[in-house]
Known about the structure:
The chain is an alpha/beta fold and 316 residues long. It has helices spanning 21-33, 46-55, 65-69, 84-91, 109-115, 162-174, 184-216, 219-222, 228-235, 239-248, 250-273, 276-295; strands at residues 11-17, 36-42, 60-61, 74-77, 100-103, 124-125, 128-130, 151-154, 178-181.
Amino acid sequence: MNADVTTAPLFNRIALIGFGLIGGSIARGARAQGLVGEIVTTARSEKTRTRVAELGIVDKVVATNVEAVKDADLIILCIPVGACGPVAAEIAAHLKPGAIISDVGSVKGAVARDMAPHLPGGVHFVPAHPVAGTEHSGPDSGFAELFINRWCILTPPEGTDPAATERLRAFWAALGAKVEIMTPDHHDLVLAITSHLPHLIAYTIVGTADELAQVTESEVIKFSAGGFRDFTRIAASDPTMWRDVFLANKEAVLEMLGTFNEDLSKLTRAIRRGDGEALFDHFTRTRAIRRGIVETGQDSAAPDFGRPHANLKKPG
Ligand code: NAP
């Protein structure tokens, strides 16, 4: 993204409710690209609001969700999935007619079901999920480039004004994202396997190793470069966010977990029977998937995720 290139503002005033990794990245990107006239934001705690004001990225930090949405043309809830319904109920009566209301939640079906009943006619509800993130959270964790070349999925309910969807698509595209539209149920199934299950596995394996660590003392940490540490990055993700994701996407996650357990049993059997061919074939298939991710620009081709390696010292 080039901070020198400015586009005409797409929205006069946007309200970001929640200013963590995602809200903070939207604010920084929108500012850098000149996408909005004014950014108003709020967060739940005084501590975060004070920090956001210090950062000086947004035009106004206000104390309540109701104040934040006043006169806003685009409102984005950047808060945990479980908080979206109650916040929608709180702000509904204060939304400007014709405004677009959206969110960034990692689950779409439950969020739409929780928010939609509260929203008045005359505002446009276009839920969104930017499929981009890091394991960090809070007001300092965001950065303007987070969404570049990542997908942002929009799940407008049936009957949504196409012009509203198009405006939100243009906003995300200007933040650098590639935008796709799908139904909430399809989104939740796809994300269950690509994001939610990997997080569950990481949380499980790191927890299991932690219990083993009681026996092996510090060896789990010491030898973590053998693979374990790559799981710890994912397992360091925000506990509130991920609690809400699993509660909200229960059905799809349980369905994918069923398939995963069957596949794990097949690999377990191959190991028990010494079936090297089955193991080799499986690992060959998965290696090709990694290649596909790199080829489509969704990850770096650098070995070991581009971690720096120290130079060998000359002996003596
Ligand atoms: P985060 O860094 O923890 O920030 C969450 C923000 O929400 C904080 O500013 C928090 O305020 C605020 N908040 C929480 N409850 C609130 C409420 N009831 N009313 C107003 N503000 C409230 O979280 P994040 O990573 O940005 O995630 C936000 C959303 O993005 C989640 O729905 C998540 O599913 C989705 N998402 C996350 C990622 C990711 O990788 N992290 C990727 C894509 C989508 P305080 O700081 O005052 O508590």
